[in-house]
Amino acid sequence: MSQETCTLATQLIRGMGSCFKLCTCSRQNRCPHPYAIRYRDATGRQREETGYSTQQSAIERLTKVYNEKSTTPRQQADLKREIGKQRFGTYASTWLTRQRHYAPGSVRSVNQVLNSQVLPVLDSRRMNTFTSTVVEDFIMSMEERSVGLAAQQNAFDTLKKILLDARRRGGITEDPFDGVIPPEYIPRKITIPTLDEIHALKAVSSDGLRVVIDLMSGCGHRNGEAYAANLERMVADDVYRITEQIEGKTREPSRLKHRKPGEFRETPMPWIVRESLLRYEKEHGASADGYLLRTQRSAYWAHTTLEYQWNVAKKRAGITRKLTTYSLRHFFASNCLSKGIPITDVAEWMGHKHINMTFKIYRHLMPASVGRAARILNEGL
């Protein structure tokens, strides 16, 4: 295959690159085939592009790339090359240490995803070799290993965060997710407790578990957030401010999921929840800084405490359905949406990072929005 160098080569200087045609036409300067260019990017990797209709447009592209390289400080260019040469496993480790907004539980979850799904396949790959084909091959490898869709999505999301971070820092030039169709996890049908079941559980629960049930079903708390029940978080008669969670394994206060240190969210507090917290404080007292739930061995509740008390309460209440404490959060969402509360508010109160997660899980609980909208619009006409 012949390659014709641009006739405007006088416009190209040493180190800028080259432009040519890949066709075998005898008179390439007059044939309709596009021009291609070849150059080295800021990381030193050779690149090739095609699709330029004229010599001038090809040279203009080379000139732009050259000028961008020329204006990039040497130290910055060296850093980009260094990142590009790193192995994925090494880069992923340093990336995780920079995620200071991650709670301890989130760090454990990311490490689990990396060790079980991502590193066994991509650990030794250099960062500057990631392309959309590599990402698609990784997705296919998970499909071949019969990895569940939920695990596939978690692995894909983790990989995407790491690679886009490397691209932002200049270690990866091309978008490795361009055109890639991500695995889509459709959450399984959730189990929502009935109001009678919640009342039955509360009737046989300990006073502490009753507080947890009220906070999760009435305010949408997560487990660890309910462990941190605190009178000082009742910032109004009908508002509860969630500022922290109790880490389920270490039994230590920690930042909220998807939040930076010091950030919080506020949820509506039904009067039943308010009375539940005040009743517990009256009968059992609170710590000097307002915390309510504690055990004989620890200043805070943990997963083991909740799991034991929940199973005992289910047995006493005669509940055989597969209900978990997380089902109480589903009840909160169902209660909100069935009363016409906007899903945007529900997502904020529940602490979801993206509203699409709320929508995926709870869309079927929303009243028929199209029909309702048609009736409302008709009234306006």
Describe it:
By secondary structure, the protein is mostly helical. Helices cover 49% and strands 8% of the residues. It has helices spanning 55-71, 74-85, 88-97, 104-122, 132-144, 149-168, 195-204, 207-219, 223-227, 271-284, 303-317, 327-338, 343-350, 355-362, 369-380; strands at residues 18-20, 35-40, 46-52, 234-236, 239-242, 245-246, 253-254, 265-268. It has a three-stranded antiparallel β-sheet, covered by helices on one side. A three-stranded antiparallel β-sheet has the order 4-5-8. A hairpin with a 6-residue loop joins strand 6 and strand 7 (253-254). The relative contact order is 0.08.
Short description:
With 381 residues, this protein is mostly helical.
| Number of helical stretches of at least 4 residues | 15
Shape category: elongated
Strand order of the largest sheet: 1-2-3
> What's the end-to-end separation, in Å?
69 Å
Number of strands: 8
Helix content: 40-55%
Mean pLDDT: 86
Helix and strand run = EEEHHHHHHHHHEEEEEHHHHHH
Low-confidence stretches: 1-5
Oligomer: single chain
Query: What characterizes the major β-sheet?
Result: 3 strands, antiparallel
Structural class: mainly alpha
Portion in beta strands: 5-15%
Task: Report the radius of gyration as a whole number of Å.
Answer: 29 Å
